[in-house]
Write a structure and sequence with these properties.
By secondary structure, this protein is an alpha+beta fold. The protein has 2 domains: 222 residues, 2-Layer Sandwich (PmbA/TldD fold); 209 residues, no CATH class. Helix content is 23%, strand content 37%. It contains 9 helices and 18 strands. The strands form 3 sheets. Strands 3-2-1-4-5-6 form a 6-stranded antiparallel beta sheet. A 5-stranded mixed beta barrel has the order 7-13-14-15-18. Strand 1 and strand 2 form a beta hairpin. The longest helix is centred in the N-terminal third of the chain and has 17 residues. The chain is globular.
């Protein structure tokens, strides 16, 4: 058996999936789906120039879901040999025979299955030895520590490379798979001045290792961010505009996505309940799903149920076009799946003709809080109440005045989203949601 993890393994995984589906049919299941994958990777980490960990990862597995009418059972295994696959299917069938019938349970509709599989350029293996990986991580950390004498310590630098191949199939006759890669490099440093100690980090992630930011650039960025936080103060309680950095803004939009997921809607547990067709963002804003972007981290030609993914305008001129649905939640709502079983695929947040450079955002804000880190889980998805620990920088006259920490920012997500007054051109592409900085007109800041 081949030890490679690439497109040559697709026929082998297709055989595993096909065998599982055949076993399910033989056992009397009315329908079934199966997902098989093989993955491998390498992660190394160094701290203060010394190797801390070298880890090899190699995993394989298969998950199967069977339906007896509208009764559902699922099971999984890390053993892809025929006997283990058969046993796993039998276990899923046994579970299904004892579950309650649910009229919304079942495969996605056959006519929704993907028929075309464009090359999304997701597979870029990185042939790198542990010694090379260690040197890259060392160079990254060393470049950061050299920036300033106040950089006294480090949480280390880490390099990771991953490659996997996946095949999904179901009893509609759908069977497809693809290989993909992901590579990352990160660094976290600690700056100290007297008794004041501050930590910050930076990272890069890409499908293609050639597109990672160079190690020294990442190390220096982490260093600059850590040093800039020295001398942080607390603020007095007040209400002021808040500017979220791109990494923090992504979380704000993810709360919106969570509120319009089918599960939140049919459970009646969303601060944007029945919001389709309503204004949820300012009229100058758009949110577009683009699942087929080459090399993007969330690209795929089909979702977790084999449903074809398509370009979509999720929010147009601030108005919500619809929800984020898999087949089950769609049926619960009397709607059609949107091809989002497993999540969104490259959600682009934009304001054509109305985006601003970072300096312009600071100038527009005048005085307010620039948030670069959020802590805690104080978000209520049902009411939209939002309260999280934060740190960042106080802005005066459109310029950074001083770093701040140990504060809390609070508001309501519906008001915060509608209260966005500007977004930035500094788009962060390191995730499924691509966005720039976002300026919210006013939030409560609790401090001293």
């Amino acid at each position: 058996m081949s030890q490679e993890v690439d497109a040559t393994r697709i026929p082998e995984l297709e055989q595993v999936v096909g065998s599982a589906l055949a076993r399910a049919k033989q056992a009397g299941a009315s329908s079934a789906d199966a997902d098989a994958s093989i993955q491998k990777g390498l992660t190394v980490s160094v701290r203060l120039g010394e190797v801390e960990t070298i880890e090899y990862h190699r995993d394989r597995g298969m998950a199967v879901t069977v339906y007896f009418g509208h009764r559902k059972g699922s099971a999984s295994t890390a053993d892809l040999r025929s006997a283990a696959v058969n046993l796993t299917v039998d276990k899923a069938c046994a579970i299904a025979r004892h579950t309650a019938s649910d009229e919304c349970a079942g495969l996605a509709d056959a006519d929704a299955m993907a028929r075309e599989f464009p090359d999304l350029d997701l597979d870029h293996p990185w042939t790198i030895e542990p010694e090379q990986a260690v040197e890259i991580a060392r160079e990254c950390e060393a470049a950061g520590l050299a920036v300033d004498a106040r950089l006294k310590n480090s949480e280390g630098a880490s390099l990771s490379t991953h490659r996997g191949v996946r095949v999904f199939g179901n009893s509609h006759g759908f069977l497809a798979g693809y290989p993909s890669t992901s590579h990352s490099l990160s660094c976290a440093l600690l700056a100290q001045a007297g008794s004041d100690m501050q930590r910050d980090y930076w990272y890069s992630v890409s499908r293609d290792a050639a597109e990672l930011q160079p190690g020294p650039v990442i190390g220096r960025r982490a260093a600059e961010r850590a040093v800039a936080r020295l001398g942080a103060r607390r603020l007095g309680t007040r209400r002021a505009p808040v500017l979220f950095s791109p990494e923090m803004a992504r979380g704000l939009y993810s709360h919106l996505v969570g509120a319009i997921r089918g599960t939140s809607q049919y459970r009646r547990a969303s601060f944007l309940l029945d919001a389709a067709g309503q204004q949820v963002l300012p009229a100058f804003m758009q949110m577009q799903e683009r699942p087929h972007l080459p090399r993007a981290l969330a690209s795929s030609s089909f979702d977790g149920e084999g449903v074809a993914t398509r370009d979509r305008e999720l929010v147009h001129d601030g108005v919500l076009d619809g929800y984020v649905l898999g087949s089950y939640s769609a049926r619960k709502l009397g709607l059609k799946t949107t091809g989002n079983a497993g999540g969104v695929h490259n959600l682009l947040v934009s304001a054509p003709g109305a985006s601003h450079e970072f300096a312009e955002l600071l100038s527009q804000m005048g005085s307010g809080l620039y948030v670069t880190e959020l802590m805690g889980q104080g978000v209520n998805g049902v009411t939209g109440d939002y309260s999280r620990g934060a740190s960042g920088f106080w802005i005066e006259g459109g310029a950074v005045a001083y770093p701040v920490h140990e504060i809390t920012i609070a508001g309501n997500l519906r008001d915060m989203l509608r209260g966005i007054v500007a977004i930035g051109t500094d788009v962060d592409e390191r995730g499924a949601i691509r966005c720039g900085s976002v300026l919210v007109e006013g939030m409560t800041i609790a401090g001293e």
